[in-house]
Amino acid sequence: MEPEEMSGNITLVQYNCSSINLSFTHTFLPPVFVIVFVVGMVSNIWGLRSVYTSWKNIGNINIFMLNLGVADLLYLFTLPFLVYYYSGNSHWQFGQAFCKVTRFCFNLNLYGSIGFLTCISIYRYLGIVHPMKVMGKITSCHSLAISALVWIVVIIQILPDMFFEKNNLKLPESCFDTTSDDRIREYLHYSIAWTVIGFAVPLVIILLCYGHVVVVLATKANINPLLKQRCLKLVVILVILFSVCFIPYHVFRNVNMKTRISKLDGVCHASFRNIYIAHQVGRCLACLNSAINPLIYIVGNDDFLMRLHDLSKRARMSVVVLTGAVLYRRTVDVDSPTDTGVTSDLMKG
């Protein structure tokens, strides 16, 4: 029976204290995953197509965007299997090996995205704050080498996750996103180190880079207004990504594992259920980055921005011409009766 104390006082674990109510997970996750799959596939294919069409003029940052899109697609391809799993009351029917591959793809996408967003931030910082020092010194080969290094570092970070069980004897058809209770203590230590290296350190780097960029943009008057506007938009997108998608996930993933350990130690709080729900919401927010990342294509792809600017200019001109034609026609329609009346009076005179 669930503890009835709602004041937050510690109580001994009773019969159902360690059990999890999965109804929220089974109801909430599948529709979110479906939406992310549809929106993410369309937006990433469209974004990658814009990179492909300008491949001859590809820049250093575009290489990171290409890798960002690949990371998104790797995860999006696994979402139909997760939708089937959670809509089927958490019964995984594709084998434990593929379960680990699915979780691996999620982590690869998440930390690959953070890595490439960090690279984009550093490149923007160097291009704005130290343009003369890096002019002509950073080539596409450097960007390709850095991209390969990011993939290697991310894989090293997430590879230990493959060696943790994703089910247990009581739930052999499960596919846990972390691990079983038998190894949860060990996994928590790994997760905290993982959070610091894969999330906190890149976050600090991005904050330092864009903090300096914003200061430079605000104090220097000789910077191209288009570049200034683009960088500010990129800052806004990254703030949304980290505050909405990444921070809640990392906080509640570790806190939820801590509550699981507390339950194993014979301690239970009524708030543990809310923490579990917050963790599920954080997982959904984390997967949203696959649908939000293509916004980086818009802000960072110079050729796409020029085409979008030309299209917007032509649209404004069409609206102006159309509005002028409508106003002219209205003027003619209003003036016509008066002219007819004047003509009639002259004829009568």
TrEMBL record:
Q: Which GO terms describe its cellular component?
A: membrane
Q: Which UniProt keywords apply?
A: Membrane, Transmembrane, Transmembrane helix
- Entry-linked Gene3D superfamilies: Rhodopsin 7-helix transmembrane proteins (1.20.1070.10)
The G-protein coupled receptors family 1 profile domain covers: 43-297
Annotated compartments? Membrane
Q: Which PROSITE patterns does the entry mention?
A: G_PROTEIN_RECEP_F1_2
Protein name as annotated: P2Y purinoceptor 1-like
